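cron nightly-structures :: item 1 of 1
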Amino acid sequence: MPKLDKKPGSVERRIFSTNFRAARQYTGFTIQQVSEITKISAPFVSMVESGNQNVTVLYMAELSYAVQVPLYVLLTPGFKPETFDNSTWDAYYELVRLAKPAVLEQKMLAEKARYYRKQAGLRQAQVDQLADFRVGTTTDLERMTGNMSIDVIAPIAPVLGIPFFQLFKPN
């Protein structure tokens, strides 16, 4: 299997930033209000919205929770907040009610990465090589070691043959 061209998360980052901005505006929240809800600085939230900031899974989870749209939905191309079925949020909220949303998202990412890697019949080292990761990145991802950013994890989806948002979608 040939190595993939690595364009660090630019498409995925743009999808998240565009969808997050649309969801925030639809809820009527200002950047300052999102900042107050999430305890993430307003300038950082603004840079995420503009697509100029690499953002970690933990921050994406907090931001998605603030606008009450599941992270996998904000990572799905073509999201339209006016057509979003809020019952999806209600089901998601039940999952995160007792846990921090960031921890749940990181755990789901680890489990999904492991599942799809095994489905593809690949070893962790093979995924590292094909995604042009440093050695051990896939192991770290599956063990929930560290707080990886969208730009780091984006290359794994094409290696596993799935859309990026699928790594965050609950079963």
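cron nightly-structures :: done
Residues 1-6 have pLDDT under 50 and may be disordered.
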